[in-house]
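Progress note, sequence design subtask.
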């Protein structure tokens, strides 16, 4: 039985007049990408700049315009691929729409092959100041962030904007000649990961937790020391608990407790809500509370302490 085809999605995010249309136009004019295969171009935002289909190589690109987020549904996309041959999908996504709506609408046989954020270097900081949640939404899963109109831009500020959300995204700046210059700003962590005991300051917990998630194998076997709040769970018994911090990634609405399972060699009496300083060795292993492999702490030393000056950890 033949396997069902899979449809790679090239997802372009960003805000109005940020340069998405221009970049997609250039990609569609590139014969290495647009080699005659059937391409579905889904446009969720129409700005001043318009596509010029006459310059596309061949007659193989079909454009679907989606004007409202509620019109972008799995049924609509399933219906299209059921009646038309598709090899690749390109999506110019509306910057004012949350990406979760798109992810939920993608059919099971569609997968995001590449996600790029295209941003105007002269306006993105204003968007970030006034609509932080939308900028965060577009940054958190972007593999590549391209800043156009970047001549004279403060690259340190743009770098910090991206790294405040993602340490993995590739950052590039478009020159007036249309070339890309890749970001080479060093981005050291605020703690020494090679120290015998990695000491995490109160203000750096969010960065530690994210780096632990992003680079889990690198933390396996390391010893760490940090301040966290206790959360007891009956599933863990009397010799284990969860220790962590509430972390705000974007705004107050998304504050969530980000904790780690911590095992002890004897019963402990710490109570939920207490703050402790824990020194522990990290082992990456399967754990029922994670439902998969994750960082499990093995306590070396603990002590009750006071609440940090700022109980909710942030990336800034």
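Output:
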């Amino acid at each position: 039985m033949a396997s069902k085809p899979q449809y790679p999605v090239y997802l372009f995010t960003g805000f109005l007049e940020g340069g998405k249309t221009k970049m997609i136009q250039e990609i569609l004019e590139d014969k290495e990408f647009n080699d005659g295969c059937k391409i579905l171009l889904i446009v969720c935002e129409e700005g001043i700049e318009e596509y010029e289909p006459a310059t596309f190589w061949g007659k193989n690109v079909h454009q679907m315009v989606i004007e409202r987020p509620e019109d972008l549904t799995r049924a609509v996309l399933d219906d299209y691929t059921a009646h038309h041959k598709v090899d690749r999908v390109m999506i110019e996504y509306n910057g004012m729409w949350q990406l979760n709506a798109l992810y939920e609408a993608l059919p099971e046989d569609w997968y995001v092959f590449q996600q790029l954020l295209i941003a105007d270097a002269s306006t993105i900081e204003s968007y970030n100041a006034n609509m932080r949640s939308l900028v965060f939404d577009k940054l958190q899963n972007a593999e590549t962030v391209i800043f156009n109109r970047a001549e004279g831009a403060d690259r340190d500020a743009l770098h910090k904007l991206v790294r405040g959300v993602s340490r993995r995204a590739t950052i590039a700046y478009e020159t007036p000649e249309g070339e890309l210059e890749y970001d080479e700003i060093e981005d050291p962590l605020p703690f020494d990961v090679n120290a015998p005991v990695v000491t995490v300051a109160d203000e750096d917990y969010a960065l530690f937790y994210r780096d632990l998630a992003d680079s889990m194998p690198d933390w396996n076997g390391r010893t760490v020391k940090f301040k966290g709040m206790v959360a007891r769970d009956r599933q863990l018994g009397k010799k284990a608990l969860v220790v962590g911090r509430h972390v705000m990634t974007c705004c107050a609405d998304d504050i969530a407790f980000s904790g780690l399972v911590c095992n002890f060699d004897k019963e402990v009496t710490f109570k939920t809500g207490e703050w402790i300083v824990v020194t522990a060795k990290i082992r990456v292993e399967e754990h029922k509370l994670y439902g998969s492999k994750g960082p499990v702490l093995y306590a070396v030393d603990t002590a009750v302490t006071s609440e940090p000056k700022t109980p909710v950890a942030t990336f800034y």
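The CA atoms of residues 40 and 62 lie 5 Å apart. Work on this subtask will continue into the next period as scheduled.
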